[in-house]
Amino acid sequence: MALTKVYIGATENLELYNGDDIISFVFTVTNADNTAYSFTGYTDINLYIYADKNRKMLVKTILAADFVISTNTITWSSDYSASIALENGIYYYSLTYEDATSRPISIAVGSLRVI
Question: Among 13, 54, 56, 93, which is disulfide-ready with 110 (CB 3.0 to 4.6 Å)?
Fold first, then answer.
């Protein structure tokens, strides 16, 4: 299990080991004043992986089934070969959720290094 604390819209760089499943990677999401962020009314959550920093070339989408939201934490668990399956290299990601109005809200963005 890995833990990381992020602010809504924050840059957080991640590193994955090629072939290793992701088991209970926890994002603890807070507001800028360190209070717990509320995901009340969320309808969807996805992690988008891009080939470029400008997020123009989508490589992979990790769907909501791989995430669990509880209070202000997001727990990510994925089977590497089934959900991720990326070659070694540097990618870029955006973890977003949608609220009741279907508006995408960025939770975290950054580089995703697969080694």
Answer: 13
pTM equals: 0.85
Q: Which residues contact 102 (CB under 8 A, 6 or more apart)?
A: 43
What does pLDDT average to over the chain?
87
- Fold annotation for 2-114: Immunoglobulin-like (2.60.40)
Rounded CA-CA distance 70/87 in Å is: 31
Instruction: Find, among 48, 50, 46, the residue nearest to 91 by Cα.
Output: 50
Residues 6+ apart with CB under 8 A from 1: 23, 24, 25, 26
pLDDT > 90: percent of the chain: 40
Residue 3: both structure tokens together = 């833990």
**Please, are residues 58 and 92 in contact by the beta-carbon 8 Å criterion?**
no
Q: Tokens at residue 90, please?
A: 């540097």
Q: Where are the domains of the chain?
A: 2-114
Write down the residue that tokens 């609220």 correspond to.
99
